[in-house]
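Protein of interest.
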Amino acid sequence: MPATARFEARINTDVQQLLKRAAILEGRSLSDFVISAALSAAKKTVEKNELIHLSIADQQCFAEALISPPMPNKKMQEALDLSTSLLGE
């Protein structure tokens, strides 16, 4: 994939030296190393904040609620009735 965007950052010398050292240890360019590390961190952050992980028991409970939803309680039925009367649905 050809690079089409540019990204610049100001960092202190110690951070730059550490990044260069890590890049050399992996046999990569500094840019490649930084981009790869940033991309990995970004993907983890997005996944952590956008995906919901459920245990097997929670998955089963969720599926059962979708397949056979419980009957609405009195307050829920009142809210549904009000919504229907206001929205005309």
Q: What stands out?
A: The chain is about 65% helix and 0% strand. Residues 13-87 form one domain. The chain has a mean pLDDT of 94. Helices lie at 13-25, 30-50, 56-67, 74-87.
